[in-house]
Design a protein that fits this description.
With about 280 residues, the protein is α+β, with helices and mostly antiparallel strands. About 50% of the residues lie in helices and about 15% in strands. The protein has two domains: about 5-30 and about 130-270, no CATH class; about 60-125, no CATH class.
Length: about 280
């Protein structure tokens, strides 16, 4: 594919994405945000306990939380034991204050810990969780093409479950991808992390916010995915909205988004397919 043709494809996709972001947040995004709000944040110690008991864990919550999400614990499933702090209000606090208020003001004391049990999504069944940033379609041999491009850039690539629940990470010269994703998701994730490597490993890393970097990387992934025939329109727009990536923010980054997306599209679309 010629560079000019790749630029035209990238420009059209960016225009569509900006239009999507100008609309109100979708129902899928609203559902996702409600789901995220249900899950607790765990301490480092409890994360280790969860990882040891269930290395493949992705979404973990208690019995009652799963019920509010329309799911129930499978018969025979064994919970993961973690430790929850027990709080006591300071003497000067009134009984009308809620625990959340006390925690936010630092007005409570941790007087101990109690064992509680949580369950991974794989231990539950019922209503599907709201998904975000999913992508569908047949990526053909583009995974191999992207992997070859990564190698040509001198970037190390590995597939590891250690990064779960993240789908991919980028650490200056190394990309790690979570195995087990669908072929389309793997390609989209590869494009996202390649974008980080190309755009955010120089001066722009210190001159941009994390919000802007994520917006830019997902915009590039969106453009690449759509250019090769994958369906990622709504999901990518929702993901960017999470980072407050509105059209104005995209406009500030359009040049580098367009240039990076066009580079990936052009390079991975030319020449014979790589050997498998």
């Amino acid at each position: 594919m010629k560079v000019e043709q790749a630029k035209q494809i990238a420009n059209k996709a960016i225009e569509e994405l900006a239009a999507a972001l100008n609309a109100n947040p979708s129902e899928a995004l609203t559902s996702y945000l409600k789901t995220v709000a249900k899950f607790h944040k765990y301490s480092f110690h409890n994360i280790l306990l969860i990882a040891m008991a269930c290395p493949q864990a992705t979404h973990v919550a208690g019995f009652h939380t799963w019920r509010t999400l329309g799911r129930h614990i499978k018969k025979g499933a064994k919970g993961i034991r973690i430790f929850a702090p027990v709080f006591r209000r300071r003497a000067e606090q009134t009984d009308t204050q809620t625990n959340d208020e006390l925690l936010s003001t630092g007005a409570s004391l941790v007087v101990g810990f109690r064992a509680v049990y949580v369950f991974d999504e794989s231990m539950t069944e019922g209503k599907p969780l709201a998904e975000l940033n999913s992508v569908h379609g047949d990526p053909s041999d583009y995974r191999e093409r992207l992997e070859r491009f990564i190698e040509e850039q001198g970037i190390a690539l590995e597939y590891s479950t250690d990064i779960a629940p993240a789908r991919g990470t980028s650490h200056g010269g190394k990309i790690t991808i979570l195995p087990g994703q669908s072929p389309a998701e793997t390609v989209e994730t590869l494009a996202h992390e390649i974008a980080h490597e190309l755009m955010h490993r120089g001066d722009r890393r210190t001159s941009t916010t994390k919000r802007q970097r994520e917006t830019e990387a997902e915009a590039v992934a969106y453009v690449v995915a759509n250019a090769i025939g994958l369906q990622a329109t709504s999901a990518s727009a929702d993901y960017i909205t999470l980072w407050n990536g509105d059209a104005a923010l995209l406009a500030q980054s359009l040049e580098i988004i367009q240039r990076t997306a066009a580079q990936i599209i052009a390079v991975t679309s030319e020449g014979p397919a790589p050997p498998k």
